[in-house]
Amino acid sequence: MSTSNASLLSDQQAIDRIFAHIDNGTTDLGDTVWQEPTENYQSQARFEAEIALLKRLPVPYCPSAALPQKGSYIARSAAGTPLVVVRGLDGEVRAFINACRHRGMQVAKGSGCSRAFVCPYHAWTYNLEGNLKSIPGPEGFPGIDPDDHGLVEVSAREKGGIVYVMQEGQISPDMLENCLDYFAPGQEYFEQGEMTDDANWKLLTETLLEGYHIKSLHKETFYPYGLDNVNLVETFGANSRITFPFRRIEKLRDIEPSQRRIDGTVTSVYHLFPNASIAVLSKHTSLAIIEPISPTKAKWVFYRVINRQTEEHKISLEEAQRDAQFVNESGQDEDREAARAIQESVPSQANDHFTFGHFEKAIVNFHQHLAVHLAENSD
Ligand code: FES
Ligand SMILES: [Fe+2]
Predict the structure, then answer these.
(1) Which of 11, 20, 136, 335 has a CA that sits 20 to 30 A from residue 53's CA?
(2) pLDDT, tens digit, for every residue of 295-350?
(3) Given pLDDT bands bounded at 50, 70 and 90, which one contains residue 1?
């Protein structure tokens, strides 16, 4: 992980600050208390404005490592649009709307590796650059110019081991200025996962962005290993990093400061505005994109990559899988359940707003930026 292009603490500084918080009984604090109207978690108009925003921002789609070869592709919906993203024969990643130009069938499904996309309906065939290469029975379509019937391309760009997609306009380099190098070349992709929750995508996102609930919500799962409400919260642009220390960070006190390694002693969660996050866990790193489906439903898409390895520090696939399973089967279910329970209370109007306090700085940063982006477009 390279943090050189953002004003984030070095590992050494982070360890020092965590020890200072433990010793003083403190945690990082924001300077703003934010009130978010509960209407924003159920309104159809707000949902549509957010989908429109997701289309005009560069949003993480998958790790570069999930498209390892020429012809590797992943098809899934992003902001309600079916897309297929593929690594071409030239090694470049391209994104297309996954809609055949004959009658709109999706030409790719799931993930795989292919030299062409053959539409399953009537077998119109496209190359990896999206060009229409063949029509069975061309005499049935006398007026069709293949050059006008390629797959519709949208902007895609790789940076720091992530593929970003933007459905409207072109991704410029300065749009990715705040995007760090999240994955090093050679880090191995090992699995994808999906799950759907009856909760607004923002409620699910909020569960990832504070450690004020560790003891209360995760009493039996994360709390035996982790500290409650001892966090580092750093914002960079609309993005943020939240550091959750494990109790085992204490063992670093006996190690000479310059020799201390933070890996395995904290979980770092990077929030990539607006709907993606990267969690660096002990053995693996997980990119999660929370796709809004409706005002009250969202789908998580996960891509998991084995952490960086060195000669002294090897990680097997089994270890990475066990690490992923621990997160899945423990605290994450509690977070999802909380988000679903909150969603059920929203229509009651018991709250006309939710309050995010000084411990919830990363969520405040998220809502502040979301409000600014949405306001920009309503002018
Ligand atoms: S819809 Fe694709 S070939 Fe007919
Ligand atoms: Fe949680």
Answers:
(1) 335
(2) 999 999 999 999 988 877 889 999 999 999 888 777 899 999 999 999 999 999 99
(3) low
Q: Residues 242, 211: contact at Cβ < 8 Å?
A: yes
Residue 161 confidence (pLDDT) above 90: yes
- Given a contact cutoff of 8 angstroms between Cβ atoms, the answer to whether 74 and 162 are in contact is no
What is the distance between the alpha carbons of residues 144 and 139, in angstroms, rounded to a whole number? 10
Cα–ligand 1 centroid distance for 60 (angstroms): 29
d(CA 260, CA 262) in angstroms, rounded, equals 6
Percent of the chain at pLDDT exceeding 70: 98
Question: Ligand 2: distance of its center to the CA of 149 in Å?
Answer: 47
Ligand nearest the Cα atom of residue 269 = 2
Atom of ligand 1 nearest to the CA of 101: 2
Q: How close is the Cα of 202 to the center of ligand 2, in Å?
A: 14
Q: Which two tokens stand for residue 2?
A: 């390279």
CATH of 59-176 given 1.10.10.60, 3.40.50.2300, 2.102.10.10, 2.60.120.280? 2.102.10.10
Q: Which ligand is nearest to the CA of 123?
A: 1
Q: Give pTM, 2 decimals.
A: 0.96
Could you tell me which of 160, 192, 176, 187 has the C-alpha nearest to residue 68? 187
The CATH number of 11-55+181-378 is which of 3.40.1190.10, 3.50.30.10, 3.90.380.10, 3.40.50.300? 3.90.380.10
Atom of ligand 1 nearest to the CA of 104: 1
Q: Whose C-alpha lies nearest to ligand 1, atom 3? A: 122
